[in-house]
Specification:
CATH topology of the largest domain: Aminoglycoside 3'-phosphotransferase, Chain: A, domain 2
Mean pLDDT: 89
Order of helices and strands: EHHEEEEEHEEEEEHEEEHHHHEEHHHHH
Strand order of the largest sheet: 7-8-12-13-11-10-9
Helix content: 25-40%
CATH class of the largest domain: Alpha Beta
Number of domains: 3
Oligomer: single chain
Low-confidence stretches: 1-9, 11-15
Strand content: 15-25%
Structural class: alpha+beta
Number of helices: 13
């Protein structure tokens, strides 16, 4: 831990003694968490943005984690800290440390979301709307959430933390917080008002008014018997089963959500434009510096973006999912549901809420079919092609237009997605880099 690290109130006020005693522990603990964006750099500065006692033994914190030796770079994170003298053994995995000085000296500090008691009390706050300092707990008055639901923390997420209560509800706690209404509350709430049943409607949520208004968590119905699309696709591949029926129905579900989004969030502008081309090209140039394997394909990939300049305008820009793939959809019985409208937490909230071409979502799902097909040896490109065609055909039956007919637009967005994937894999999973690179090679040489 850098010796310069300190935990202080934002604005230069004198450090709060209990929080100051936690500085070193949190600076070491934060970079080890999967949801912490800056795991490759040490935390050099922690600023307290908000501190609220939710209930005895549990403190809610919003902190700004600075990295790179200055407080300015970094992000705001939400922490719920439990404090006990002798925590139960099952909390060992959530242990943060014991401060050596200050009012918390000798106390065990841990991540309270791992504590069933704290998790249960958090649900009680959501069941009884009200305030706690700057925190606001709100709920849909038409829905009564029962009490006494046993909580369990899911361990599969990367950027947030989710608690399941009695296999009836799921609470997503946003770890990285940006000012404004989070799309994972805004979009499902708007779609529910439109009568769209493809997205579970929020029943309760909490937010903060300080230092700026922001969404902190959303409670929604949980689908206990549902399986995500990624799991189902891999299961079909392992069994050498066809997946085209499911892909066709998934295309229909995607179109249903897009139609509801277009109604819920009217957009004024049209389709793709020069700004989109410029943004895609800029991302390509930056990616080529990060991933040397991309360099030979850059000229060919530029043609995918350049083709948009003379192309016929595609479908109007609108609110979209923004990060659609097989892991963001659930199948329960015969129905597909779309989840996780938060988008990429590292991107600005204004960008995630902006109107974009629905083809971007389609391209994301097509890339996901390719990823699934690459998980087994030998690779089955014909499986991916059939799923891609079935998905687009299903989409067309609901949307009234076929993504495959928007050739230039679909190629550009699929290329943009593959470039993003190449950068991600090069940084985090080098063994997976051949997956997007196969698409890069195909997209770079394909004629118009």
């Amino acid at each position: 831990m850098p010796k310069t690290a300190s935990l202080r109130p934002r604005g230069g006020a004198a450090p709060d003694r209990p929080m100051a005693s936690l500085a070193g522990l949190l600076c070491e603990w934060l970079p080890r968490q999967r949801w912490f964006a800056g795991r490759d750099q040490p935390v050099t500065d922690l600023a307290v943005l908000s501190m609220t006692e939710l209930f005895p033994g549990c403190v809610h914190l919003l902190v700004h984690a600075g990295q790179g030796g200055a407080p300015a770079p970094g992000a705001c994170y939400q922490l719920l800290l439990g404090v006990r003298k002798h925590p139960a053994p099952h909390l060992d995995q959530a242990f943060i440390g014991r401060p050596q000085e200050g009012p918390l000296a000798g106390q065990a500090v841990y991540d309270a979301l791992h504590d069933p008691r704290s998790a249960a009390l958090l649900l009680e706050r959501l069941r009884s709307p009200g305030t706690a300092g700057p925190l606001r707990f709100e709920a849909d008055p038409a829905v009564r959430v029962p009490g006494g639901l046993a909580p369990r923390l899911l361990d599969a997420e990367q950027s947030n933390s989710s608690l399941v209560y009695g296999d009836a509800y799921i609470l997503k706690v946003f770890r990285r917080v940006q000012p404004g209404t989070n799309p994972d509350l805004e979009v499902p709430e708007a779609l529910a008002a439109q009568g769209c049943t493809r997205v579970p409607a929020p029943v309760a949520w909490f937010r903060t008014t300080e230092p700026r208004p922001a969404t902190l968590g959303v409670l929604q119905p949980f689908l206990p018997d549902a399986s995500d699309g990624w799991t189902l696709a891999l299961r079909a591949l392992a069994s050498v089963d066809d997946f085209t029926t499911e892909a066709h129905e998934l295309g229909q579900a995607t179109a249903d959500v897009h139609l509801a989004l277009a109604t819920a969030f009217p957009a004024a502008d049209g389709g793709e434009n020069g700004h989109t081309v410029a943004a895609m090209t800029a991302r390509l140039e930056a990616a080529a510096h990060c991933v040397p394997a991309l360099a030979p394909f850059v000229p060919g990939l530029r043609t995918a973006f350049g083709a948009l300049d003379g192309a016929v305008a595609g479908p109007p820009a609108q609110r979209i999912h923004g990060d659609l793939h097989l892991g963001q959809v659930l199948r329960a019985g015969p129905d597909w549901f779309v989840i996780d409208f938060e988008g990429e937490p590292s991107r600005p909230l204004t960008e995630r809420r902006s109107a974009q071409s629905p083809v971007r979502d389609v391209a994301g799902m097509l890339r996901s079919f390719d990823y699934a097909a690459r998980q087994r040896r030998p690779w089955r490109p014909e499986w991916a092609r059939r799923c891609r065609d079935a998905y687009c055909a299903g989409y067309a039956t609901r949307a009234g237009w076929d993504p495959r007919q928007e050739h230039a637009l679909l190629r550009a967005h699929e290329t943009d997605r593959a470039v993003y994937e190449a950068v991600y894999e090069a940084r985090h999973r080098p063994d997976w880099l051949p997956v997007p690179m196969a698409a890069i090679e195909r997209l770079a040489v394909r004629e118009g």
